[in-house]
Write a structure and sequence with these properties.
Mean pLDDT: 96
Number of helices: 13
Strand content: 15-25%
Radius of gyration: 19 Å
Helix content: 40-55%
């Protein structure tokens, strides 16, 4: 059995480890706590992934190193560079292919569908962090030191996903209480199912055309927040959503008390204008398609506490 190393056990990391193990691969899942899904093919390991030497030893013999890590949202400029640097170094030293899970931040604001051929043009702190991570990895790839690819997702849907939508809207919807979403409720927005992100990463790792390129995860939906929430309520048998748009001024006030919410302020262009990920190239080359929205929402509902 081939070995894959997955760093990070958030929603996508867990889904990725599970899918690989179900295909018969050995998976070494690296997190600080040693947590992860229970499966005979998954070996959870407690380790600090910023330790390039330790991570290199854990990656020895692996075909692929998958980066599904996610530092605290309010610590990206300080925590991402050493973490990503250690993963890139581990891949270079061991000869493992390196697959990154990214997002759309590096593009900056885009008018119209977002395609993979767009250049990096970040306008925010977190966008510049993301752009630099890819630039460093791409430089190593072009120098022939490692094979890398970046699989980019949008806002996540799915079980155990720490997305703004799941945190801000989902609990209030099912409790029948009002919820305020920080963004325009009626603009198109791409939503990524965590399993689709994992499947795209696997497909990229197994395709020769993937290396040195960016790939977009097919979106399970591009519904606006209001329409998405109405569909979720209908499937859950819940009352119609009591949903309002949180004004930017209120988000700024909330951010004065909550450092994570404060980080949403610079990213508001993602939620107040249409933000649609074009994945036609990924679908045509890698053969990945999106999971139907109702299937994703029903899975989420079924996993909630009774």
């Amino acid at each position: 059995m081939s070995l894959s190393v997955v760093v990070g056990a958030g929603g996508t990391g867990r889904a990725l480890a599970r899918l690989l193990a179900e295909e018969g691969e050995r998976v070494r899942l690296v997190t600080r706590s040693g947590s992860g899904p229970r499966h005979p093919g998954i070996e959870p390991v407690a380790a600090d992934a910023t330790d390039a030497d330790r991570l290199g030893r854990l990656t020895e013999g692996a075909l692929t190193l998958y980066n599904c890590a996610m530092p605290a949202y309010d610590r990206w400029p300080t925590d991402w560079p050493p973490l990503a640097g250690a993963m890139l170094a581990a891949a270079e030293r061991t000869g493992a292919d390196y697959v990154m899970l990214g997002n759309t931040y590096a593009y900056g604001p885009v008018s119209g569908p977002i395609t993979e051929d767009l250049p990096s043009a970040p306008t925010t702190v977190k966008g510049r962090v993301r752009a630099q991570l890819w630039a460093d990895a791409l430089e190593a790839h072009q120098a022939g030191r490692v094979r890398v690819t970046d699989v980019r997702a949008c806002d996540f849907l799915g079980v155990d996903t720490l997305s703004v939508y799941n945190l801000v809207v989902l609990p209030h919807l099912l409790a029948g209480t009002p919820a305020a979403y920080p963004g325009d409720l009626d603009v198109e927005h791409s939503w990524t199912y965590i399993d689709d992100a994992a499947r795209t990463m696997i497909a990229a790792a197994r395709h020769d055309a993937a290396w040195g390129n960016v790939w977009h995860v097919p979106s399970t939906s591009t519904l606006p927040v209001r329409a998405l929430t109405a569909r979720l309520a209908a499937l859950a048998g819940a009352p119609g959503p009591q949903l309002t748009a949180m004004p930017l001024e209120e988000l700024v006030r909330v951010g004065e008390r909550d450092s994570i919410m404060a980080e949403l302020v610079e990213m508001q262009y993602l939620d107040r204008e249409p933000h649609v990920l074009d994945s036609a190239h990924t679908e045509a080359v890698l053969g990945v398609t999106a999971t139907p929205l109702d299937e994703v929402l029903k899975e989420t509902i079924d996993a909630l506490p009774a």
